[in-house]
Design goal:
Elements: E1 13-16, H1 20-31, E2 36-40, H2 42-47, H3 50-58, E3 62-66, H4 75-87, E4 92-97, H5 99-113, E5 141-146, E6 157-162, E7 167-172, E8 180-183, H6 185-188, H7 193-211, H8 218-240, H9 245-258, H10 260-263, H11 270-282, H12 286-315, H13 323-333, H14 350-357, H15 373-382
Parallel strand pairs: 1-8, 2-3, 2-4, 4-5, 5-8
Antiparallel strand pairs: 6-7
């Protein structure tokens, strides 16, 4: 008999297949907001007219624009954005960009609500051992128009990098999730191919580790298996033709579905946990961490979850084949890196990575029990 609990989050709407400039204005009207603080991709702002289209559509309701969020969401940039939003008297944050910008806005919401004005102050809102501390709920909320497909827009959690320790720390609150997500496939046509495809593998990783977790249930399985099918059919189509907006739309909807497991409490595994460390300490892009680690983690786990892994192969259109091999071939076919060497992480770092990975939320919840750093090191050695 199935047992479990599904918590429905505080997201109110997902709008898909509409131009972001139109949908942002509609959301402002729906929410009664008057001062939109844009947190956006610097490249989109400087090299395309996509952000200007949104500013023009907002008119006097555009309060300010912040376009300087680096990868992995460093604390200093979160504080800079919060200071600017506070000065602009923003009543809504609108993000247009990738996962680091989305996460940055979640953290900005919490900084505004809790009067955090220094990088050290972020200690007051970071989760410790997975549990967020008591804090004020966000009042200035967020809507998000993503340009990549890692899926963080559908989560109330964010990763913020502590520049002193080089550790990515979690901040979360149920109301940090965007109130609405706008899926405009045309925005993705400006995203570099490697970034779109690799973040797509991040979404694949959400599906795969959720399906294989051992704690899934039919509600989440239905979303993750359909998401995995959509993603693995659509990503090669985008690689073949970057202007195929139907394929990009399928990628975006597949990514939305990929978050069905996480958002209903299903844990991720070692691919995500090791990825946290590779990103924060070595600057490896989110998507690349999944490209490198996921097939090796699957092979290491197979002795305990072969039956669940068979669902992955079937959803990817290869029933009966080894899921690790199917994923390996798929990722290689997209031209993505498949070893730690390719992302410039050498064996001399493996012991440190293994030690730090044990402190992440996900490595201790990997479906094949990981007792200590030595077993993480086994996975890293296989991925060298």
């Amino acid at each position: 008999m199935h047992k479990g609990r599904v918590i429905f989050g505080a997201m109110e709407e997902v709008v898909f297949g509409r131009p972001a400039s139109e949908a942002v204005v509609e959301q402002m009207n729906r929410l009664g907001a008057n001062r939109a603080f844009l947190m956006v991709s610097g490249t989109l702002n400087r090299e395309t007219d996509e952000i200007e289209k949104i500013r023009r559509a907002l008119g006097a309701r555009h309060a300010a624009t912040f376009d300087a969020m680096p990868a992995h969401t460093p604390r200093s940039a979160v504080i800079a954005a919060a200071d600017q939003a506070r000065a602009a008297n923003a009543d809504l944050i609108v993000t247009v960009g990738g996962g680091s910008i989305t996460d940055g806005a979640k953290a900005v919401q919490l900084c505004l609500a809790n009067d955090i004005r220094t990088v050290e102050g972020i200690d007051r809102i970071r989760a410790v051992k997975g549990a967020p501390p008591p804090m004020n709920a966000p009042v200035v909320r967020q809507i998000s128009a993503p340009t990549t497909i890692a899926g963080g827009d559908f989560s109330p959690s964010a990763g913020v990098t502590n520049e002193t320790t080089k550790v990515k720390e979690a901040v979360r609150h149920p109301l940090a999730i965007p109130r609405a997500v706008i899926l405009d496939p045309a925005l993705g046509s400006h995203t570099p191919e490697w970034l779109w495809l690799s973040t797509g593998i991040r979404a694949v990783d959400h599906c795969v580790e959720g399906i294989c977790s051992g704690q899934s249930h039919p509600y989440a399985d239905a979303q993750m298996q359909k998401g995995l099918s959509l993603l693995t059919q659509a990503l090669p189509r985008v690689k073949a033709d970057g202007n195929d907006l139907d394929a990009r739309m399928d990628c975006q909807i597949g990514t939305w579905l990929s978050m069905g497991g996480l958002s209903s409490g299903i844990p991720m595994g070692a691919s995500h946990g090791i990825g946290y460390v590779l990103g924060a300490e070595f600057g490896v892009p989110h998507g690349y961490t999944s490209c490198v680690m996921l097939p090796f983690v699957m092979r290491w786990n197979k002795s305990v979850n072969a039956e669940r892994q068979a669902l992955v192969s079937a959803a990817m259109g290869h029933p009966g084949e080894d899921a690790g091999d199917v994923l390996d071939s798929f990722i290689r076919g997209l031209g993505m890196p498949r070893s730690l060497r390719e992302v410039k992480v050498g064996p001399e770092n493996f012991d440190r990575i293994a030690q730090q990975a044990m402190a992440t939320p996900w490595v201790p919840r990997n479906p094949r029990r990981i007792e200590g750093p030595a077993q993480v090191r086994e996975i890293l050695d296989s991925a060298a």
